[in-house]
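To the team - zinc ion complex, inputs and output below.
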Amino acid sequence: MILPYFVQSPLLRAVPGVYHAFTGVDPVRGRGSRDRLRQVFSVPPSRLGTLRQVHSGTVREMAETDCDVPGRRWREGDALWTAVPGTGVGVRTADCVPILLAHPDLPVCAAVHAGWRGMVAGVVGETVRAIAERFGSSAVGGLVAAAGPSAGGCCYEIGEEVASLLRGCPGGDRHLARKGEEGKWHADLRQIALEALFAAGISPGRVEAVGPCTVCSPRFHSFRREKSLTGRQLSFIYKWDFSREFTTPQDRTPDEPAKNPHPD
Ligand SMILES: [Zn+2]
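Output:
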């Protein structure tokens, strides 16, 4: 099988029970990402939620209708999380920063779409806050996060107005460099995303960036390089449901009757 390009985070790979990928260009054309998700990654599209992304700070808990199911409802937002084993969440990007989060001891995982607008709107911190609201603030220290392929400081040019907004983000001024003509700056959005994760309370040893700059690498879609013809790449994280697959008769408590696995 010809695979799409994708990269993975070693830190997230070490989290038990979750599977993730930051996908890139798919050499197999004409197949929907729906089919590829199932065929390449064995992830059911009917269990993977995505949102209509609007460059906001809006975070949502995944609902069944966010998935590829009949009667799907496209909700707006830029971060989605789930705490249901056997479901996953994803975001689509083409230069903006995709961020995936998981926890080794809790069933939660999250996907964030963070461009400069989302960053200024605080989407990264809001995502961590939403998880803390559900699982308690002690959950934050255990989170593991990875920022995937996105436009790097090498290529991401912005004007003075955007630069001054990004300067208001945690650590923002450290990742802006003056380039060429007056009023032009290069921003390292991915580093700013990592700073937002640190500021939200995740320790630096549990956070990493993976993959190349999307503008530099032909293996990933880039809005800046491809202009209006741009495809979007899916980054997803999926929590396996091991509760049924690994239940053996020995796992039953003695007085619990055996269940017929194939009821009429
Ligand atoms: Zn670049």
